[in-house]
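ok so i was messing around last nite and threw this chain in just to see what happens. nothing serious, just curious
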Amino acid sequence: MAKVYERIADEIRQSIRAGQLGPGERLPAETVLAERYGRSVPTVREALRLLRDEGLIEKQHGRGTFVRQPRTRVVRTNLRHQWEKSRAREPEEQRARTGATEHDTGLQVNDLSFHADYREIEASGDLAKAFGVAEGEPLLERTYRTRYTAERAPFALVTSYLVRSTVAKNPDLLDETREPWPGGTQNQLFTIGIELDRIEEHVTARPPTPEEAEELELPPGTAVLVIRKTSYDTNDRVVELSDITLPGDRTELLFTTPLERW
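result:
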């Protein structure tokens, strides 16, 4: 049998799903809700906590409790990599019209806010082993944040690694002010004569760190999906690594595997 606070939460939940309480709408004060349902304020707080944990409402400090705005969903399919490769050799004007985030969300270029930071680091044991270089080898670390301008949280937390001596053949690839780069990493590698042969993505799930939960604005209890993306060139050499953290409440991973016919 449902507990009292669960029944209260269910009524509010149904009001949200039926559109009686719209996104961004403020809920009545806890005392008002307690009077409406004939229950104590602590019982109402427990019901609201349940709805916050589900990501349906959010408490804004000093303002009250509001119906949470639905976030833009991202459908990330493995076919996106071939899509990126197919356009890597297109003219810049054509590449600049859209990008991978637009591909995954259905948004347009002007809908997005993009930020990139570059810095040089030394290859640690994990990265040195993955790239097949000596520890201490200079790497170019690139962090990316892309968000819908109508929202505050980015779609993902992305950190990409390249071997500096490899990409230094094109000095533009060391310049963060050149971002966003039309055609992304595959076009960048194309400018120095590198063609990708395959991309491996190792996917795991875990609870977010406090910093990740804050930046991605995750409801309590929401997991993150973590991808280690490894790009190999046609000589079977690792040429790029990316660590991608995706919010579990608004990301869908879609894997399509073509099968050979008998």
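not much to say yet. The chain has a mean pLDDT of 93.
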